[in-house]
Design goal:
alpha/beta, Four Helix Bundle (Hemerythrin (Met), subunit A), 434 Repressor (Amino-terminal Domain), eight-stranded mixed β-sheet
Length: 448
Amino acid sequence: MFENLTERFDRAFKVLKGHGQITEINVAETLKEVRRALLEADVSFNTAKAFSSRIKEKALGQNVLNSISPGQLLVKITQEELTELMGSEKSEINLSGSPCIILMSGLQGSGKTTFSGKLANYLKNKKNKKPLLVACDVYRPAAIDQLHIVGEGIGVEVFSDKEEKNPLNIAKAGVKFAKDNGFNLVIIDTAGRLAVDDVMMKEIADLKDIIKPTETLFVVDSMTGQDAVNTAKAFNEKVDFDGVVLTKLDGDTRGGAALSIKSIVNKPIKFIGTGEKMDALDVFHPDRMADRILGMGDVVSLVERAQEQFDEESAKKLHRKIKKNKFDFNDFRDQIGQIKKMGGVKDIASMIPGMKKAMNGNEVDENSFLPILAMIDSMTPKEREFPDSINMQRKKRIALGSGNEINEVNKLMKQFNQTKKMMKLMSNKQNMMNMMKQFKKMGGKMPM
């Protein structure tokens, strides 16, 4: 996400490279590039202009320390301003009420139904809620069926009434059903509507007045850029929603909606959708997103994702094997499985500081693990357990069985041995202590 913006910002800060101090001239040149980057990202002119002015004001008012270059200082100020622009800090969803009622609103095709399922899945697994999905889209063909399929996939019950054509009646009946059957969370999926459609806008406003939801969320397709921001403004005037959900952020290389929407409607971005799977949902952290936009990675989110997939018993077993130097291809395959569960390879790579620059514009192939898994699957159980037994003859058979060349098998063996060494290194407490000391010396920042 935000690839174009990241590249343009990187180019802008290169203007200051080699300069010993910040001056009005070199800052103006850099900020001209920053402003262009924002405009190309589909950020409104007024927002881009105000953003650049704030950075200039802060930059010219600071002395550059000997240990910090002008470029580093401007990156720091830009990171702070980006964070402020997107909402300063994360905004928690309100889960009070018995039951808690969350009302979805948004345009047609924005991804409301899919997000309703993702949110139900997230709150069920992370907040121990018992959710009920309520199908109130009576206009779109097969919308009710779609929500039932989504609910079935995540193990969440769906309330619907195909005979009833009034969404208000369905919503009221759904809330009553939830109260009578022990559900403590109700998520109401409504029909998509156009901001210019007065009748449909009145319907969602009436629905909010009658149901009195704990939280009203506006779901918007981030790829629509400035149009998304304008639509959010129109919806907010009619519905006065509590927060924004940006869907399809994984396909948005510009980032205009994420950068503009908070400053225009003064409502926080609460969640972002980063893929099609039901677990591809993240709480929105403005500071972490600012880091990613500036190519600084997002180590905290990466660690959180890893912890979600963390199996304590398996980890202890793996640790014992590593200490005995018995890490094998079965373990290697399991580690690949853990990485795949964490999300797309491209998304994970963007969370590692400096990775974008190191890749030098090369695309990450989401299927890059498939040849590796095919080679491991072509090994015999003995070969997987005892990698040292794999000689040239066995390599040829593995290559043939997996549809790869012999040099690919050699590459795999090299990757495996490097991973094994790294695992051994990290299992040693003294080595880990030394790494942590180095980490603290850098002020808790990952090396760029």
